[in-house]
Design brief:
Helix content: 55-70%
Number of helices: 5
Strand content: under 5%
Shape: elongated
Number of strands: 0
Distance between the termini: 55 Å
Radius of gyration: 22 Å
Structural class: mainly alpha
Largest sheet: none
Mean pLDDT: 74
Order of helices and strands: HHHHH
């Protein structure tokens, strides 16, 4: 993202002028990068809700809905994260340890 400097859109566009040639290509690259960055940001913000679910079914419903929203975004880093979460979800125990269960096992 550092390849795109701050305020590049303003320098490319000029004051109400039509952008042509290499400047147009630079502007398209900048807007494409910003779209991808915005999509990644929205998906990350949605993923914060994952930690609020208390049941395994709720987590599964949210996680697979989030993955469905991710599938057309072409964000390989987020896809890796989704794969890791699914793999972890499949391995995790089906029930959470409750305080009473852990207390009885310590006796």
């Amino acid at each position: 993202m550092r390849a795109y400097g701050r305020g590049d859109a303003g320098r490319c566009c000029g004051a109400g002028k039509t952008v042509r040639g290499s400047k147009r290509h630079e502007l398209q690259e900048l807007f494409a990068a910003n779209r991808r960055l915005f999509k990644a940001y929205v998906l990350r913000e949605q993923l914060d809700r994952l930690w609020t679910y208390k049941t395994r079914e709720g987590v599964a419903r949210f996680l697979f809905g989030w993955l469905k929203a991710l599938c057309w975004q072409r964000l390989p880093e987020m896809e890796k994260l989704g794969d890791m979460l699914v793999n972890h979800f499949d391995v995790s125990p089906p029930t959470a340890i409750t305080p009473s269960a852990s207390a009885s096992s310590n006796r």
